[in-house]
Amino acid sequence: MNGRPLPRVAIHGAGLVGCYLGGRLHGHASVRLICRPYMITTLNEHGLGTSDFRGHLRHVAVDSLDMRTHASAAIDAELVLVTVKSAATAEVAEKLVGVLAPGAVVVSFQNGLRNVQRLREALPAHTVLAGMVPFNVVQTAPGTFHQASSGQLMVEDSPALASFLDAFAAAGLPLQPRRDMPAVQWAKLLLNLNNALNALSGLPLREELSQRAWRRCLALAQREALHVLAAARIRPARLTPLPPGWLPHVLEWPDPVFRRLAATMLAIDPLARSSTWEDLQAGRPTEVDYINGEVVELAEAHGLRAPVNARLVALIHEAERQPRQWHGGDLLAELRESR
Hints:
The structure is a single chain. This protein is an alpha/beta fold. The chain has two domains: 8-179, 3-Layer(aba) Sandwich (Rossmann fold); 183-338, Orthogonal Bundle (N-(1-d-carboxylethyl)-l-norvaline Dehydrogenase, domain 2). Helices cover 43% and strands 15% of the residues. The protein contains 15 helices and twelve strands. The strands form two sheets. The protein has an eight-stranded mixed sheet with strand order 5-2-1-6-7-8-11-12, with helices on both faces. It has a four-stranded mixed sheet with strand order 4-3-10-9, with helices on one face. Strand 3 (48-52) and strand 4 form a beta hairpin. Helix 9 (212-231) runs parallel beside helix 13, helix 9 packs parallel to helix 15 (328-338) and helix 13 (292-301) crosses helix 14 (307-321).
């Protein structure tokens, strides 16, 4: 870093995404992981490994890790990455009040649309920026976190990021500044509508998306969401080679045609699964209310209905209580019947 001290980065909510980012940034920044006791136990036993589908492989020894369990550990951080589940954002924001140093920058690398607003309301004296993690992260072994799909980190454009850009670039995680983050977040949410479907399928992402019945389920959810967004005069950003409005049509193409196109659009390795599937497997509440549920809420605000996404919300909540694996054709019939 040209002889300058390493930037001090705290990652609050170091789970799958947070540990992956922390492992990649280690050595390029002074990283402190704020995580739950079970994660500290895992990392103390195994260290912190990171890998990706392109061949990256790294291991950080236990004695090199700085791990804490409380938000007060962010007291000297210059940059705080918030990676907790959306339901925990208000609690985290409250805990950070009075802790952060003057000038500390906060970036929300979370699913959902309202986390930045909640953080800004609680931390008005600090720069709080929206971020987006486009790729999937899975834990392939205890303490080893694997980036299983492609994409570049995006962050709301701000001069406050300048002193951190080199660290992210050196870590192989360059930040792409964006001036249209609300549109980016809606575009990411459109893609994340598949999280619920992947969890209900019980299949790896690539296998699920290789089956036309599952893609038709996603097309139903996306088409409904696009209709609601149009009514709300919200135009999602273009995050893939295809415009968002084309995605439902392409998803319905026959399997051989879709596979050829998908190979040029998005790299997904066989290990990838959705965070909703991970949450169900771990017995944790999911973020479905902050993904499919956002479509339902926006529809209601504009006098519309979003029955497909509402049904997916209900099915995931049922799965939180009693897991069930669906067949693609059966779920497609269920969602068509809900309209």
